[in-house]
Task: inverse folding
């Protein structure tokens, strides 16, 4: 009887599974490659820098202070750091930085207001005095309206900055009649000033007293004839007409 051969069954070899560690390593390498490609592409670069709100600061000054440049890394821009750097400028009171992907950075600045203006030493260029004490050249868009002119002030006079700060704290309607402010220091009042108004008054006061005395000034201007107003330790008012009448009486 012939022997029947039983076919041998092929043993299934266990399939080699890729190690989870290898998969993770490959995935990380793939992600790293994507990151390198992305950060080398134009999508990761600053393509446009928009600036708003500047009248007294030039675009170049703001860009230099911010450290931003077109072509720089978009994701490396730290908004808070840029804002702090811009606030170091004497013209910038506040700043805000916003980013819009892809590549757009917008800077919005709030500048210190102009409180007065003066001519430069050559007497040819009009300059605005900001509330920070900074002096900037005035153009047509930055021209302050109904602000006093500062005359005979030295550039390094510390009271010039204090005057700018005092004027900034006073509402415009209370200073709109003041046309000129001149330093007039004394031993008792080193911050004494003389002011001339558009309504023909002459005013003597001190920078440290200006804020609390300005309401009295406007009351006199609104109700009395032109004259001399003193606002120091005590307030007084003498009309110019009375002084001229006294002089005529003495001459007679």
Result:
């Amino acid at each position: 009887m012939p022997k029947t051969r039983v076919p041998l069954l092929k043993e299934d070899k266990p399939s080699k599974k890729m190690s989870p560690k290898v998969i993770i390593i490959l995935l990380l390498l793939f992600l790293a490659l994507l990151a390198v490609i992305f950060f080398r592409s134009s999508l990761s670069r600053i393509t446009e820098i928009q600036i708003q709100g500047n009248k007294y600061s030039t675009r170049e000054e703001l860009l230099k202070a911010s450290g931003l440049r077109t072509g720089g890394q978009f994701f490396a821009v730290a908004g808070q750091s840029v804002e702090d750097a811009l606030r170091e400028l004497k013209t910038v009171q506040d700043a805000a930085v916003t980013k819009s992907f892809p590549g757009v950075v917008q800077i919005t600045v709030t500048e210190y207001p102009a409180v007065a203006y003066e001519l430069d030493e050559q007497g040819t260029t009009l300059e605005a005095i900001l509330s920070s004490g900074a002096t900037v050249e005035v153009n047509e868009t930055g021209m302050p309206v109904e602000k006093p002119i500062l005359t005979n002030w030295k550039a390094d006079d510390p009271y010039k900055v204090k005057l700018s700060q005092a004027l900034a704290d006073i509402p415009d309607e209370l200073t709109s009649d003041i046309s000129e402010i001149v330093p007039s220091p004394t031993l008792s009042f080193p911050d004494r000033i003389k002011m001339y108004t558009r309504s023909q008054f002459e005013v003597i006061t001190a920078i440290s007293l200006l804020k609390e005395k300005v309401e009295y000034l406007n009351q006199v201007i609104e109700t009395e004839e032109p004259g001399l107003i003193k606002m120091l330790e005590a307030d007084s008012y003498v009309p110019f007409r009375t002084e001229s009448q006294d002089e005529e009486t003495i001459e007679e």
